[in-house]
Amino acid sequence: MSIFFLLLLKIFPLYINIVLGYFSTKLLHVQRESIANILIYILGPIVVFSATLSVKIDLSILFLPIFFYIFCSIIAFIALFVFKNTWNDATSNILAFSAGTGNTGYFGIPLAIIFFPPYLADIYIFTVLASLLYESTTGFYVTAKGNFTVKESINKMLKLPILYAFILGIALNLLGVGIPEEVSSYTAQFKGAYGILGMMMLGMGLVGLKRGSDLDVKFISITFILKFIFWPLAILGVIYLDRNFYMFLNEDLYKVMFLFSIVPLAGNTVTLAVLLNAKPEKASFTVLVSTIVSVLYIPIVLALYGGF
User: Fold this and answer.
1) Between the chain's N and C termini, which has fewer beta carbons within 10 Å?
2) Cβ–Cβ under 8 Å, residues 76 and 97
3) What percent of the chain has pLDDT over 70?
4) CA 193 – CA 200 distance, rounded (Å)
5) Distance, CA of 63 to chain centre
């Protein structure tokens, strides 16, 4: 029970941010499109660049973001192929995006800080780069494909600065270049801003939610099965294979992988849905419900795993 209450206490501010986001749009008429642009084009690249430089990279650690990026992309394309004719709007594209990722940043990083020692929390944060890269490339593509042609989707993807921030960060890290302490204390502030605005986007996306067309039971059911059942079982399968046959990773990295697999739906589902006008209300409601469900779901699956 102590894990449950610790988790509840830690994530409570996230719900405050959701409420603040809702009222900032409802009462103050803050444009959610502007916040989405700030997240993707300003805060995201800075967070990715600074985090990429902060981890000492070896082959096993580098494996994690590479594996998850490939895994996320495969799941997204499979989901888009399977469900592309299920809806006659961009819902299938939002489903494909959400199938391939989770709220590894806004929600997962606080969990990593709770459960892991600092060095392992840093490894988790580095692994989160896989989600950010996925969301900015494959995820952006499968979402944009609902409203744009293939060429237009690729062009929009290549204009996202977060992609180049990641590449530059990796290159400088491998060259041994670091961020001066005076600068790193400044860039660290962007992580907090990224988390706060990201959760506020959930609340902003709920403005205009209409009962009926936006409360799609089929959409919610499929996304929940993929995120809360398929993802942890698939990652447990990978852990089993490595532990018994390949032995490339270690128990600490298994913990990072499992935590990565059990977070709720990604908050950036709403961000991209807003930017691309792809059912943001439906995405916001589904992400919000998954976040609430995770309050009970995460302690349960951690107990079944054996705890950290």
Assistant:
1) N
2) yes
3) 88
4) 10
5) 18
Residue 226 exposure: Cα atoms within 13 Å on the Cβ side: 24
Alpha helices in the chain (DSSP H): 2-26, 32-38, 44-53, 59-83, 91-99, 108-115, 118-136, 138-144, 150-158, 161-174, 181-206, 217-225, 231-241, 251-261, 268-276, 280-305
Task: Give the mean model confidence (pLDDT) for residues 7-22.
Answer: 79
Domains of the chain: 2-305 (1.20.1530)
CA dist 62 and 194 (Å) reads: 24
Provide the pLDDT for residue 296: 81
- Separation between Cα atoms, residue 199 and residue 270, nearest integer Å: 10
* CA atoms of 298 and 120, how far apart (whole Å): 19
Distance of CA 30 to the CA centre of its chain: 24
Please report, as a single letter, which amino acid is at residue 92: S
CA 13 to chain CA centroid, Å, is: 18
CA 270/CA 198 separation, integer angstroms: 9
Q: Which residues contact 115 (CB under 8 A, 6 or more apart)?
A: 255, 259, 302, 308
pLDDT at 70 exceeding the cut of 90: yes
Q: Is 249 helix (H, G, I), strand (E, B) or coil?
A: coil
The predicted pLDDT at position 236 comes to 96
pLDDT in tens, 158-208: 777 888 888 898 889 888 887 787 777 888 788 778 878 877 877 887 776
C-beta of residue 256 within 8 angstroms of C-beta of residue 187: no
Least confident of 71-75, 86-90, 148-152, 192-196: 148-152
- Whole-angstrom CA distances from 159 to 47, 128, 155, 163 are 18, 21, 6, 9
